[in-house]
Each structure stands twice: as C-alpha cells, then as structure tokens.
Automatic annotation (TrEMBL):
It comes from Pedobacter xixiisoli. The keyword rRNA-binding does not apply. Pfam families: Glyco_hydro_28. This is Glycosyl hydrolases family 28. Keywords: Carbohydrate metabolism, Glycoprotein, Glycosidase, Hydrolase, Polysaccharide degradation, Repeat. It comes from the Bacteria. Coiled coil: none annotated. Belongs to the glycosyl hydrolase 28 family. The keyword Disulfide bond does not apply. InterPro entries: Glyco_hydro_28, Pectin_lyas_fold, Pectin_lyase_fold/virulence. Pectinolytic enzyme involved in the degradation of xylogalacturonan (xga), a galacturonan backbone heavily substituted with xylose, and which is one important component of the hairy regions of pectin. Activity requires a galacturonic acid backbone substituted with xylose. One of its GO terms (molecular function) is polygalacturonase activity. SUPFAM superfamilies: Pectin lyase-like (SSF51126).
C-alpha cells in the first residue's frame, strides 16, 4: 500500500511539474537588446514575467500640430509624442499586469470588440490576453501616450541560420543601408532584434538631399524583388535614422511573397508599398509611424493581396489601394481582422491615384479604435480617370470618427489625368460607428462621371440606424439604397 501511495504521489508530482513547465513555455519573452532605450511610462509583465516596453514616436494630440506634421514636411519629425509597446509570443491565454507612475482612476482596453475585463488593485491593472490579440491600454483618458501590447502566436518552423537562402538577424541591434531580398530567400528577424535602416556613406555622397527633403528619394531600405520571398520573425525594423521623405522601409515587387510577425517603427516615407505584385500575404505586422507621408500599407497595381491581423497606427493613410498609369491592374484585394488607429488621413481607402481600374476589393472585420483625422474613415477618393467597381466594406467597428464615409469624384492636387473616372457598385454592410458629428457623403463629378449603385445595409451611427436623409449627395449620384 505504501509503495502504491509513493508511486501515485511521484506520478502526481511529475504531472504537476510537467504542467508547470508547459504553462511556462506557453509564453515566450524576448529581452530588449543592449542600447535600446526602454519606456519609463509603463511596467508590463505577463504571467508574472517582466516584458520589455519599447518607445514609439506618434502624432501629438493637438490637431494643429498633427496637421503641421503632415503639411510642413521639412519639419515633420519635430512634431510628435511618445507611446509605448510590448510584445511576446503566447499559446492560449495569459494574465497581463500593467503599472504606470500615476494614480489609476480610469482604464480603457481597446478594441472594445475583444470585451476584455480588467481589475485595478494596488496601482496595478490586470487583465487576460489571448493569442493574436493586439491590445491598447489607455489610463485616465490618455489616448496618445497609450500602451500597445502584441500577443503573437508562438513561431513554428524557424529558419536555420545555416541555410544559405536565409538572411538572419539574431537578437541585438543591427544596421543596414540597403538590402535586396531575391528569389527563394527569407529575411528573418529574431525576437529581441532591431534592424536600423540608415543612409549609407556612399549614398550620402552620391545623392545629397537639398533643403532637408528628397525630390528623388533614395531606394527603399529593403526591397523584396522576385518570387517566393519571405520576411518573418518577431524583431523590429526601425527607420528613425533615415531623414524624412528619404526612403520606403520595405518595398514589395514580385509574386508569392509573405511578410509576417515583425514590427515596423518610424518609416520616413511610405512604410510598406506593394507595387506590381501578385499573391502577397501581409500577416500580423505591427506598424507605428508619425512623419509626413508615412503611410502604412500602400497597394498599387497588384492582384491577389491579403492583409490580415495587423496593427497600424500612423500619420497618413493606413491601408490604401491605388492604380497608377500603365503599371498593371489592381484587383482581388482583401484587408481583414486588423486593428487601426487613424491619425490624420484615411483608415481604409482607395485613391487618390486611380489612373487605372480598381475592382473586387474587400475591407472586412476590422476595428478602428481611433480616428482623429481630417480626412475620412472609409473612402474612395477619385481624382483621375480609372473606374472603381465592386468594393465592399463589411463588418467594421469604428469606435471614433467624425468623417465616416466618402465616395468622391473631382479634381484634386493629385490629379494627373485630364478626364475624371467612375465609382460603381459599392457596398457598406454591418458597420457601427461612434462620433459627433458623423458624416456621410456621395459626390459625383458630372453626368458622365457618376457615383452609381451604392448599398447601405445595417449601418449604425451612435446606436441609431442610418437613414437616407443623413446622406449628403449631389445630382451625379444614382441608385442608392439604405436597408
């Protein structure tokens, strides 16, 4: 009997140890590299293990300064505040604790659709987080200096450092001026790695900028040119050393390309343009920027593109689709399950450059947690000659907006075509929005350049259903239905 009891006890003890080890391995935390300045605004732990908290420059709350950052491009980098972010890998659910050097009176955790419940005890905020969630914590109504927490999936099948087709950056700070990733190659950034992009000495002598800006920007810091290319990992690409308007961070031009898991911080120009490409998957990137024209993801003249499960907070357009002249078609693009923070321009949009046709676009299942912009949350901004058709905005949750929806054809500073185009067959379905005021406009250009066939179904403004009398439209809009 004693022997049986002893065996049972040992088995139980081993099972407990096994469970403890499994539970501990369910969270992977990556130490910050030496030399990286860490935020003093927050202390974060997950399952009682400390997590590094990084600093990210973001647009200021004062809208005059935000707009100045966009319009005064020469001095754009001078107008910013600082937010913070932390990241780790997780399998399942974990408990997060957040401390801040203030008396905590109010806490908001976004997006609201996560329905995360929190507690505050002894100056510590605690709440559960699940794999894949991208959470923003706001304390005492402070939205700008907020804390972003990214709970990645645990990586599988990490590439080998010995693989000749892998460009590998391990933990630590690395510096590059120009990197071209070609056919069948993988660029891998390990957790705890920071890849700083700079302007190289040779570039400085051959392409010296005038007046602080670049009429002809430098080539992208990283180019993905070819087929079957991957960028993946948990590290950070940082563009803060590149002068404003100097270069894109990552440029995609090819086919069968994937970008997954990494963090993109402080691009000096469009962060992630996708040009003349096919079959591109952008998954679980976290993108934070604050400078003039630091767009998030720009999809131009490309087909079969999927952008999903991303967090984007930046000064200019977040996800935007364009079709430049004589560069190929733009069609079959899906943007889904993203968390978005719009600072000045558009959250989800098409245009302004629409010289060629754009069709079969779906924006779905996204959360816009803030929209502080002077432009629009959802827009087709058409000032050229192409045709925009079969566009769907569906299952969207917009927690803050004033300028909600715009379908617009006219001339603008971006126009390069003599003629104007068309907007046809646009659908808005299952969308909720909050704000004051919340505006909707449909504006065609002329009898030959109409906004035609626009369907609204189950659109809620501050808890009230959209009705036709709320929509501002001119004489060049036809076939509008509201259900």
């Amino acid at each position: 009997m004693k022997q049986k009891f002893l065996i049972t006890t040992v088995v139980a003890l081993l099972a407990f140890i096994g469970m403890a080890l499994t539970k501990k391995s369910d969270v992977i935390i990556y130490p910050a590299p030496a030399g990286e300045k860490i935020s003093e605004a927050y202390t974060v732990s997950v399952n009682r293990e400390n997590v590094p908290v990084y600093i990210a420059k973001v647009a200021p709350l004062d809208k005059k300064l935000r707009y100045k950052a966009m319009d005064d491009k020469l001095n754009s980098a001078k107008f910013f505040d600082e937010a913070a972010f932390a990241y780790f890998d997780l399998n399942g659910t974990a408990q997060v604790s957040v401390k801040a050097p203030v008396q905590i009176k109010e806490v908001k955790i976004l997006p609201s659709s996560y329905q995360i419940k929190h507690e505050v005890r002894g100056g510590v905020i605690t709440f559960p987080i699940k794999t894949g969630q991208q959470v923003t914590v706001e304390i005492n109504g402070e939205i700008i200096k907020s804390l972003h927490i990214f709970a990645n999936e645990i990586e599988k099948d990490k590439p080998s450092t010995n693989d000749p087709n892998v460009i590998f950056y391990g933990p630590g700070v690395h510096e590059i001026s120009r990197l071209i990733v070609k056919d069948n190659q993988t660029l891998y950034l390990a957790g705890g790695a920071i890849l700083r992009t700079v302007i190289g000495d040779k570039e400085q002598t051959t392409n010296v900028p005038t007046s602080g800006l670049h009429n002809k920007p430098y080539p992208p810091s990283i180019s993905l040119v070819g087929k079957n290319i991957k960028v993946r990992g948990r590290g950070i690409i940082d563009g803060s050393a590149c002068p404003t308007h100097s270069r894109n961070m990552i440029m995609v031009q090819g086919s069968d390309i994937s970008i997954e898991g990494i963090i993109l911080r402080d691009a000096s120009l469009w962060t992630l343009p996708v040009r003349m490409s096919h079959n591109v998957h952008i998954n679980n990137i976290k993108l934070i920027g604050y400078r003039a024209n630091s767009d998030g993801v720009d999809i131009c003249n490309s087909t079969d593109i999927l952008v999903e499960k991303c967090f984007i907070r930046t000064l200019d357009d977040l996800v935007v689709i364009k079709s430049l002249k004589n560069k190929g078609v733009t069609e079959r693009i899906t943007v889904r399950k993203c968390v978005l923070w719009n600072e000045v321009a558009h959250a989800l949009s098409i245009g302004a450059e629409i010289n060629g046709d754009i069709k079969d676009i779906l924006f779905t299942d996204c959360d816009v947690i803030h929209d502080l912009g002077r432009e629009w949350s959802l827009r087709v901004y058409h000032c050229d000659a192409g045709k925009v058709s079969n566009i769907r905005f569906e299952n969207l949750r917009i927690e803050e907006s004033k300028k909600f929806i715009s379908l617009w054809i006219n001339k603008a500073v971006w126009s390069t075509d003599a003629e104007r185009g068309h907007i046809d067959n646009i659908s808005f379905k299952n969308i909720s929005v909050a704000g004051s005021p919340v505006t909707v406009e449909l504006l065609g250009y002329g009898a030959e350049n109409k906004v035609n066939k626009v369907d609204f179904k189950n659109i809620t403004l501050n808890g009230t259903k959209l009705t036709k009398d709320i929509i501002k439209q001119n004489d060049f809009v036809t076939n509008v239905t509201v259900k």
